[in-house]
Design brief:
The structure is a single chain. The chain has 314 residues and is of the alpha+beta class. The chain has eight helices and 20 strands. Helix content is 25%, strand content 26%. 44% of the residues are buried. It has three domains: 80 residues, Uridine Diphospho-n-acetylenolpyruvylglucosamine Reductase, domain 2 (2-Layer Sandwich); 113 residues, Uridine Diphospho-n-acetylenolpyruvylglucosamine Reductase, domain 3, CATH 3.30.465.10; 94 residues, UDP-N-acetylenolpyruvoylglucosamine reductase, C-terminal domain (Uridine Diphospho-n-acetylenolpyruvylglucosamine Reductase, domain 1). It is globular and about 50 Å long. A hairpin with a 2-residue loop joins β9 and β10.
């Protein structure tokens, strides 16, 4: 489903760029769910300087949404008004110097993990199990297998909504569970992490084990957005969902994964409304059954389309 933004006048109000501006750009092709409406304008910066200049010249009334590889993102069917900024290949470089790894915000977490392995640096193995980019990992303090970004973070560079360039320390980030303290209008452009020397074969073996575990327990070959809900304090979200009888629950083309019930999957013809509606039904049933209120970990953005009623089936 795609709702078009017919008026392309927003393009004429935007500052000149060296990157690329695209009106009415499809977002479904970026989303790992493969659903969602278009961006009114998609901006892909040429580099960090291009991004900063664009933000300085952007009219104050134009809304901005920043995305990475959209692996943990649900774009609603009505699309996204304003400008969507996507940091792509220009922000995907990875460099290793001594025990430090510096990566652009658009670099895939798995590629950072592999670069560290090849350099004999441990501490990055958990990133092999996170299907996202560095920018998203910083924003949500991404973690897996008992480790998280805050464990290896040294510094980051970012651009503010006013086009100012920031250098950020661990204290500036104030990481907590699946969260950092930086405002939403701060756009991370790169980060530096610190590893520790270890045997390359030993690092590789741990990464293989992490990948094997992920493949055995998660629907990695399905159209999904990763973990749907954050773990409430003292609980595991999947256990609460299972206890509430939601494993395999469906709504339209959306399903609670029978393999891991903290994952929603697009079985082939789901809309974003199907997926979000199913997630809300899961939250309702869990609260009713256990008294625990689940909070979305997947980021939901954009405008809804016309409502479509779908039966929820167990």
């Amino acid at each position: 489903m795609m709702t078009a933004f017919c008026d392309t006048s927003l393009l004429t109000r935007l500052p000149p760029v060296r990157g690329r501006l695209t009106a009415n750009a499809s977002m479904a092709g970026f989303s790992w769910f493969r659903v969602g409406g278009p961006a009114e304008v998609l901006y892909e910066p040429a580099d960090a300087d291009d991004l900063a200049a664009f933000m300085r010249g952007l009219p104050d009334d134009v809304p901005v949404t920043v995305i990475g590889v959209a692996s943990n993102l649900l774009v609603r069917d009505g699309g996204i008004a304003g400008v969507v900024i996507r940091l792509g290949k220009a922000f995907a470089d990875i460099a290793v110097e001594g025990s430090a790894v510096t990566a652009g915000a658009g670099a895939m977490d798995v590629n950072v993990s592999r670069a560290a392995r090849d350099a004999g640096l441990a501490g990055f193995e958990f990133l092999i199990g996170i299907p996202g980019s560095v920018g998203g990992a910083l924003r949500m303090n991404a973690g897996a297998y008992g480790a998280e970004i805050s464990d290896i973070f040294v510094a980051a560079r970012a651009v503010t909504g006013r086009g100012e360039v920031l250098d950020l320390s661990p204290a500036d980030m104030a990481f907590s569970y699946r969260h950092c303290s930086q405002p939403d209008d701060v756009i991370f452009t790169n980060a530096t992490f610190m590893g520790r020397a270890d045997d390359t074969d030993a690092i590789a073996a741990r990464m293989v084990e992490n990948q094997k575990s992920r493949g055995e327990t998660q629907p990695v070959k399905s159209r999904t957005g990763g973990s749907t809900f954050a773990n409430p304090k003292g609980h595991k979200a999947w256990e609460l969902i299972d206890e509430a009888g939601c494993r395999g629950l469906t709504r339209g083309g959306a399903q609670v994964s029978p393999q891991h019930c903290n994952f929603l999957i697009n079985t082939g013809n789901a809309t974003a409304a199907d997926l979000e509606g199913l997630g809300e039904e899961v939250r309702r049933r869990v609260a009713e059954e256990t008294g625990v209120q689940l909070e979305w970990e997947i980021r939901r953005i954009g405008l809804p389309s016309e409502p479509r009623v779908q039966e929820v089936r167990s």
